[in-house]
Amino acid sequence: MLLTEGIEDKAKLRKVLEKIAECCLKQDNYHLAAKKFTQAGDKVRAMRALLKSGDTRKIIFFANVSRQRDIYILAANYLQSLDWQRDGDAAKNVVSFYTKARAFDLLAGFYESCARAEVEERRDYEKALAALGEAHECLQLCGEAAPKAAVTRVREHMDAVRKFLAIQELYADSPLEAVAQCEAMARLDLEPAVRKGDLLAFLVQHYVGERDYAAARRCLREMPEVAEFVDAEVLRLVGWSSDDRRKLQSLLARRTADGDRDSSDGEVQEELSDAP
Hints:
Largest sheet: none
Low-confidence stretches: 261-276
Radius of gyration: 27 Å
Mean pLDDT: 89
InterPro entries: TPR_IF140/IFT172/WDR19, TPR_IF140_C
Distance between the termini: 86 Å
Region (Disordered): 254-276
Shape: elongated
Strand content: under 5%
Structural class: mainly alpha
Helix content: over 70%
GO biological process, one term: intraciliary retrograde transport
Number of helices: 16
Domain IF140/IFT172/WDR19 TPR: 8-97
Pfam family, one: TPR_IF140-IFT172
């Protein structure tokens, strides 16, 4: 005999089903808990139980059949915790669920994450700009409710990415002007829209082409993670070694300890040999 048999009062039946679901949760029986919460009419708690199970297929299915805003958002949030960058279906479902929930501010945030992924993992600034454009459109759909800080941030990031792409196009016709503009950008803090390492890598490529290896090494010293931005063959060509960074860090540490805080990075680097 089922525990719920004979209970005709709907309120009592709902409470019994909720108690059963809570017991299932304590026993880590998340699927049964979700079923009982659903029978009790509490689909949000049912979804939360499914989220604990980590059963992505059932989470997506439940979100699609429930058609509730809160559940769409819960599902989309969960999918973002997965490796959505390598799972095209997961990314599509995130967009779909936020769109169905009309949670355009959250969708804008997801597109910003997409832009960062394009930059950090693939160094694809054109796709990053496209993702930022989607984020901007989503914020426009929010109307007056759009977070002003988010709108400002997305616009600034779009401007920075456009500038870097324009510099790369300019280089073919006016390399010196492109280099000058890139050097100016490298002095700014444009992370995460445009990474300093990518700007410096652009400059390194130019200086290597000009056989100005001393200038290339100066750029490398400013680079946060040299191996991430410049390949080993270029490093060998310019005579770069990991000892160069250690020397610079040691010299900076000594100057700080001595209280000489007014020295510029350029003055510090002058003390390092530029000889290959």
